[in-house]
Fold:
Amino acid sequence: MEVEVYLSGYHVDEDDVRDKTVVVIDVLRTSTTAAAALHNGARAVVPAADMAEAGKIAANLDPTSYTLGGERSGLKIEGYRFGNSPLEYTRDTIGGKTLILNTTNGTPTIRRCRHAANLVIGGFVNLRLVADFLRDDGHDVVIVCAGWRNRVSLEDTLCAGMLLHELWGGFEPSGTSDTGHIAFTLFTNEEADIPGALRRSTHGRRLMAMGRADDVAFCASVDTVPVLPVYGESRLTAREIPESVVPFA
Ligand code: MLT
Structure:
């Protein structure tokens, strides 16, 4: 299996992902929110590229069937029911509903990767399920970190590094690209304290200044949400976990 890592979602175009198995990582917080919403019974999460697309998606759905959630620069979008905190999406708020999700970097990155052969969403909370899926799938992999407004994010790069570490049994993949090397090296430097690294990251500090320290802690927890969101027909749904896989035993 070959693997390539993009450190910002803005660096990727259609040809980079075509025929590939792609993992989009937006640890703070889109990946974590999508996994949490599906885990708590959302029928689907529909990622929107921007405000206009979110509006169009909503206009085509029965108003009782969906909830609009999303943020700009971390703050809930005015007029939306929810923001992008994974902790908002409980069984009571999202069970049985479709979540239309519109975020600064995460959902546009997912939309940009929509022509991949397989597209899954990963974070620390479902890392092992992502690794198991990639191992079984066996295709070449492209890991796309959403980053922040065309910049690299520590938390997404760290998670990409952990995924490489998990897939190659603790070794750096041989012949990996510079971006793979950067991600792997970052992980080996920070692995002893992932929550601390997220608290020190630029977006972690931004969220904590908004009073969202609980989100940062949740997004840093490893293998706590046993759901693999997969993209198909313009939406994310939870991939059924094969019986042979005991989630996080
Ligand atoms: C993003 O798309 O950049 C985010 O997930 C930001 C956030 O919710 O804090």
Notes: Residues 26, 28-30, 71, 74, 84, 103-106, 146, 207 surround D-malate (CB under 6 Å). The chain has a mean pLDDT of 96. The chain has eleven helices and ten strands. Residues 17 and 139 are 12 Å apart (CA to CA).
